[in-house]
Design goal:
- This protein is an alpha/beta fold.
- The chain has one domain (about 20-240): von Willebrand factor, type A domain (Rossmann fold).
- Helices cover about 35% and strands about 15% of the residues.
- It is built from 7 helices and 7 strands.
- The protein has helices at about 1-10, 35-50, 85-100, 115-125, 160-165, 195-215, 230-245, and strands at about 20-25, 55-60, 70-75, 130-135, 145, 150, 175-180.
- It has a 5-stranded mixed β-sheet, sandwiched between helices. Strands 5-6 form a two-stranded antiparallel sheet.
- A hairpin with an 8-residue loop joins strand 2 and strand 3 (about 70-75).
- Helix 2 (about 35-50) runs antiparallel to helix 3 and helix 5 packs across helix 6 (about 195-215).
- The two termini are about 15 Å apart.
- The model is unreliable at about 1-15, about 240-245 and about 250-269 (pLDDT under 50).
Length: about 270
Protein backbone atom coordinates (compact mmCIF):
# COMPACT_ATOMS: atom_id res chain seq x y z
CA UNK A 1 0.00 0.00 0.00
CA UNK A 2 2.81 2.38 0.96
CA UNK A 3 4.67 1.70 -2.29
CA UNK A 4 1.52 2.19 -4.36
CA UNK A 5 0.81 5.51 -2.65
CA UNK A 6 4.37 6.69 -3.25
CA UNK A 7 4.12 5.80 -6.93
CA UNK A 8 0.79 7.61 -7.24
CA UNK A 9 2.18 10.76 -5.63
CA UNK A 10 5.30 10.83 -7.77
CA UNK A 11 3.58 10.11 -11.09
CA UNK A 12 0.10 11.52 -10.55
CA UNK A 13 0.92 15.21 -11.00
CA UNK A 14 -1.80 17.70 -11.83
CA UNK A 15 -0.39 18.38 -15.29
CA UNK A 16 0.46 22.01 -14.60
CA UNK A 17 4.16 22.57 -15.21
CA UNK A 18 6.09 25.42 -13.67
CA UNK A 19 7.63 28.06 -15.96
CA UNK A 20 11.18 27.27 -17.03
CA UNK A 21 13.72 30.11 -17.14
CA UNK A 22 16.99 29.30 -18.91
CA UNK A 23 19.98 31.59 -19.34
CA UNK A 24 22.72 30.60 -21.78
CA UNK A 25 26.11 32.29 -21.36
CA UNK A 26 28.04 32.34 -24.63
CA UNK A 27 31.77 32.97 -24.20
CA UNK A 28 32.85 35.05 -27.21
CA UNK A 29 36.58 35.03 -26.49
CA UNK A 30 39.00 33.93 -29.20
CA UNK A 31 39.80 30.69 -27.37
CA UNK A 32 36.19 29.63 -26.81
CA UNK A 33 34.02 27.53 -29.12
CA UNK A 34 30.62 29.17 -28.55
CA UNK A 35 29.12 30.16 -31.89
CA UNK A 36 25.79 30.61 -33.65
CA UNK A 37 25.50 26.89 -34.32
CA UNK A 38 25.66 25.96 -30.62
CA UNK A 39 23.33 28.75 -29.54
CA UNK A 40 20.82 27.80 -32.24
CA UNK A 41 20.93 24.15 -31.14
CA UNK A 42 20.23 25.09 -27.53
CA UNK A 43 17.43 27.50 -28.47
CA UNK A 44 15.73 24.93 -30.70
CA UNK A 45 16.01 22.35 -27.92
CA UNK A 46 14.19 24.81 -25.66
CA UNK A 47 11.41 25.23 -28.24
CA UNK A 48 11.22 21.49 -28.73
CA UNK A 49 10.60 20.92 -25.01
CA UNK A 50 7.17 22.58 -25.28
CA UNK A 51 8.02 25.10 -22.53
CA UNK A 52 5.16 26.02 -20.16
CA UNK A 53 3.56 29.47 -20.23
CA UNK A 54 5.75 32.15 -18.68
CA UNK A 55 9.01 30.38 -19.59
CA UNK A 56 12.00 32.29 -20.95
CA UNK A 57 15.22 31.52 -22.81
CA UNK A 58 17.88 34.24 -22.73
CA UNK A 59 21.33 34.29 -24.31
CA UNK A 60 24.03 36.52 -22.83
CA UNK A 61 27.32 37.08 -24.69
CA UNK A 62 30.44 37.80 -22.68
CA UNK A 63 32.40 41.02 -22.91
CA UNK A 64 35.31 42.29 -20.85
CA UNK A 65 33.32 43.30 -17.76
CA UNK A 66 29.80 43.55 -16.32
CA UNK A 67 28.94 46.57 -18.47
CA UNK A 68 29.93 44.76 -21.67
CA UNK A 69 27.54 41.80 -21.30
CA UNK A 70 25.14 41.70 -24.26
CA UNK A 71 21.66 40.17 -24.50
CA UNK A 72 21.68 38.63 -27.98
CA UNK A 73 18.50 36.55 -27.86
CA UNK A 74 15.40 36.44 -25.69
CA UNK A 75 12.48 34.08 -26.17
CA UNK A 76 9.40 34.52 -23.97
CA UNK A 77 6.48 32.15 -23.83
CA UNK A 78 3.20 34.06 -23.25
CA UNK A 79 1.76 33.68 -19.77
CA UNK A 80 -1.64 32.97 -21.28
CA UNK A 81 -2.50 31.76 -24.77
CA UNK A 82 -6.12 32.87 -24.78
CA UNK A 83 -8.47 31.50 -27.42
CA UNK A 84 -7.22 29.42 -30.33
CA UNK A 85 -4.34 27.94 -28.34
CA UNK A 86 -3.03 25.69 -31.10
CA UNK A 87 -2.80 28.46 -33.72
CA UNK A 88 -1.29 30.91 -31.24
CA UNK A 89 1.36 28.35 -30.26
CA UNK A 90 2.24 27.69 -33.91
CA UNK A 91 2.57 31.40 -34.56
CA UNK A 92 4.78 31.91 -31.49
CA UNK A 93 6.94 28.96 -32.52
CA UNK A 94 7.33 30.32 -36.05
CA UNK A 95 8.27 33.80 -34.81
CA UNK A 96 10.75 32.33 -32.32
CA UNK A 97 12.41 30.23 -35.02
CA UNK A 98 12.80 33.37 -37.14
CA UNK A 99 14.52 35.17 -34.24
CA UNK A 100 16.88 32.23 -33.80
CA UNK A 101 17.68 32.09 -37.52
CA UNK A 102 18.51 35.83 -37.55
CA UNK A 103 20.83 35.58 -34.53
CA UNK A 104 24.19 37.31 -34.91
CA UNK A 105 26.68 37.05 -32.04
CA UNK A 106 29.16 39.82 -31.18
CA UNK A 107 32.67 39.58 -32.72
CA UNK A 108 35.28 37.48 -30.93
CA UNK A 109 37.26 39.32 -28.29
CA UNK A 110 40.68 38.94 -26.65
CA UNK A 111 39.09 39.36 -23.21
CA UNK A 112 36.79 36.86 -21.58
CA UNK A 113 34.59 38.21 -18.79
CA UNK A 114 33.00 34.90 -17.87
CA UNK A 115 32.63 35.76 -14.19
CA UNK A 116 30.94 39.08 -14.98
CA UNK A 117 28.44 37.36 -17.27
CA UNK A 118 27.69 34.71 -14.66
CA UNK A 119 26.93 37.51 -12.22
CA UNK A 120 24.47 39.01 -14.72
CA UNK A 121 22.98 35.55 -15.22
CA UNK A 122 22.42 35.24 -11.50
CA UNK A 123 20.41 38.45 -11.50
CA UNK A 124 18.35 37.29 -14.48
CA UNK A 125 17.60 33.92 -12.88
CA UNK A 126 16.71 35.54 -9.55
CA UNK A 127 14.11 37.71 -11.30
CA UNK A 128 12.77 34.89 -13.48
CA UNK A 129 9.70 32.71 -13.02
CA UNK A 130 9.65 29.10 -11.98
CA UNK A 131 12.60 26.77 -12.30
CA UNK A 132 15.97 28.23 -13.38
CA UNK A 133 18.68 26.73 -15.52
CA UNK A 134 22.15 28.07 -16.27
CA UNK A 135 23.84 26.93 -19.49
CA UNK A 136 27.47 27.96 -19.86
CA UNK A 137 29.24 27.42 -23.20
CA UNK A 138 32.84 28.36 -22.51
CA UNK A 139 36.39 27.07 -22.18
CA UNK A 140 36.47 28.86 -18.79
CA UNK A 141 39.73 30.68 -19.56
CA UNK A 142 38.91 33.91 -17.78
CA UNK A 143 40.82 36.89 -19.19
CA UNK A 144 39.83 40.01 -17.26
CA UNK A 145 42.00 43.07 -16.67
CA UNK A 146 39.47 44.31 -14.10
CA UNK A 147 39.96 41.19 -11.99
CA UNK A 148 43.65 40.80 -12.79
CA UNK A 149 43.23 37.27 -14.20
CA UNK A 150 44.57 35.79 -17.40
CA UNK A 151 43.94 32.07 -17.31
CA UNK A 152 45.74 31.65 -20.63
CA UNK A 153 48.96 32.63 -18.87
CA UNK A 154 48.41 31.48 -15.29
CA UNK A 155 45.45 29.84 -13.62
CA UNK A 156 45.06 30.97 -9.99
CA UNK A 157 44.69 28.59 -7.08
CA UNK A 158 41.06 27.86 -6.17
CA UNK A 159 41.27 29.76 -2.87
CA UNK A 160 42.74 32.86 -4.52
CA UNK A 161 40.12 32.77 -7.30
CA UNK A 162 37.17 32.49 -4.92
CA UNK A 163 38.62 35.14 -2.59
CA UNK A 164 38.89 37.64 -5.45
CA UNK A 165 35.37 36.97 -6.65
CA UNK A 166 34.04 37.41 -3.13
CA UNK A 167 35.92 40.69 -2.71
CA UNK A 168 34.47 42.01 -5.97
CA UNK A 169 30.93 40.87 -5.16
CA UNK A 170 30.91 38.47 -8.10
CA UNK A 171 29.55 35.34 -6.44
CA UNK A 172 25.88 35.16 -7.47
CA UNK A 173 23.56 32.79 -5.64
CA UNK A 174 22.75 30.10 -8.20
CA UNK A 175 21.70 27.48 -5.66
CA UNK A 176 18.14 27.33 -6.96
CA UNK A 177 19.15 26.57 -10.55
CA UNK A 178 20.39 23.59 -12.52
CA UNK A 179 23.67 23.96 -14.40
CA UNK A 180 25.08 22.66 -17.66
CA UNK A 181 28.67 23.60 -18.52
CA UNK A 182 30.25 22.58 -21.82
CA UNK A 183 32.99 23.69 -24.19
CA UNK A 184 35.86 23.13 -21.72
CA UNK A 185 38.63 22.02 -24.09
CA UNK A 186 42.39 21.41 -23.83
CA UNK A 187 43.50 23.04 -27.07
CA UNK A 188 46.30 25.59 -27.47
CA UNK A 189 45.79 29.24 -26.68
CA UNK A 190 44.90 31.54 -29.61
CA UNK A 191 48.49 32.85 -29.78
CA UNK A 192 49.81 29.33 -30.23
CA UNK A 193 51.21 28.88 -26.74
CA UNK A 194 50.67 25.36 -25.40
CA UNK A 195 48.02 24.39 -22.91
CA UNK A 196 49.24 21.78 -20.46
CA UNK A 197 47.51 19.02 -18.56
CA UNK A 198 48.45 20.75 -15.31
CA UNK A 199 46.78 23.97 -16.45
CA UNK A 200 43.67 22.02 -17.35
CA UNK A 201 43.52 20.39 -13.92
CA UNK A 202 44.12 23.67 -12.09
CA UNK A 203 41.43 25.39 -14.19
CA UNK A 204 38.91 22.71 -13.28
CA UNK A 205 39.78 22.95 -9.60
CA UNK A 206 39.51 26.74 -9.60
CA UNK A 207 36.13 26.79 -11.34
CA UNK A 208 34.67 23.93 -9.33
CA UNK A 209 35.55 25.88 -6.18
CA UNK A 210 33.95 29.01 -7.66
CA UNK A 211 30.79 27.14 -8.71
CA UNK A 212 30.53 25.63 -5.22
CA UNK A 213 30.75 29.14 -3.76
CA UNK A 214 27.92 30.16 -6.11
CA UNK A 215 25.73 27.32 -4.89
CA UNK A 216 26.52 24.80 -7.65
CA UNK A 217 28.76 22.23 -5.94
CA UNK A 218 27.88 19.49 -8.41
CA UNK A 219 28.69 21.37 -11.62
CA UNK A 220 30.19 19.05 -14.24
CA UNK A 221 32.64 20.55 -16.74
CA UNK A 222 32.19 18.95 -20.17
CA UNK A 223 33.90 19.46 -23.50
CA UNK A 224 31.10 18.35 -25.82
CA UNK A 225 27.82 20.25 -25.85
CA UNK A 226 24.67 18.12 -26.14
CA UNK A 227 21.45 20.07 -25.93
CA UNK A 228 19.02 17.56 -27.44
CA UNK A 229 17.53 16.28 -24.19
CA UNK A 230 18.79 19.03 -21.86
CA UNK A 231 15.38 20.58 -21.23
CA UNK A 232 13.63 17.22 -21.10
CA UNK A 233 15.91 16.19 -18.21
CA UNK A 234 15.20 19.47 -16.49
CA UNK A 235 11.45 18.95 -16.98
CA UNK A 236 11.67 15.49 -15.41
CA UNK A 237 13.65 16.89 -12.48
CA UNK A 238 11.06 19.63 -12.01
CA UNK A 239 8.24 17.07 -11.92
CA UNK A 240 10.13 15.05 -9.33
CA UNK A 241 10.70 18.13 -7.15
CA UNK A 242 7.00 19.01 -7.26
CA UNK A 243 6.04 15.41 -6.49
CA UNK A 244 8.35 15.38 -3.50
CA UNK A 245 6.93 18.66 -2.20
CA UNK A 246 3.41 17.21 -2.36
CA UNK A 247 4.26 14.19 -0.21
CA UNK A 248 3.04 14.15 3.40
CA UNK A 249 5.98 14.38 5.86
CA UNK A 250 5.63 10.72 6.80
CA UNK A 251 6.00 9.66 3.17
CA UNK A 252 8.78 12.04 2.10
CA UNK A 253 11.88 9.92 1.29
CA UNK A 254 14.67 10.66 3.74
CA UNK A 255 18.25 11.01 2.43
CA UNK A 256 19.48 9.54 5.72
CA UNK A 257 17.74 6.18 5.55
CA UNK A 258 16.95 3.56 2.97
CA UNK A 259 13.67 3.94 1.08
CA UNK A 260 13.44 0.17 0.60
CA UNK A 261 10.10 -1.04 2.00
CA UNK A 262 10.35 -3.10 5.17
CA UNK A 263 9.00 -6.59 4.73
CA UNK A 264 6.04 -7.38 6.93
CA UNK A 265 5.28 -11.07 6.96
CA UNK A 266 1.81 -10.39 8.35
CA UNK A 267 0.89 -8.64 5.09
CA UNK A 268 1.88 -11.67 3.02
CA UNK A 269 -0.37 -14.07 4.89
Amino acid sequence: MRRALLLLLFLGCDGHRLPHSAVLVCDRSTSSTCDEVKVEAAALAFLGSNPPPGSTFTVLATGCDVGDVTVVLELRVPRRWGGGVASRKRRWRRESEELIADLILPPLSDCSGIVATLWKSGRALAEANGHGQLILVSDLREVSAALGFNFEREVPKPSAFVKKLREEGLLPDLSGSDSYVCGVHDRRNPDGTPWTARQSQTLREAWQAAFAAMGLPGAVLREECRFEDLFRRSKDADSLRRARSSLPPALTPSPHRSNRPVRNDQEDR
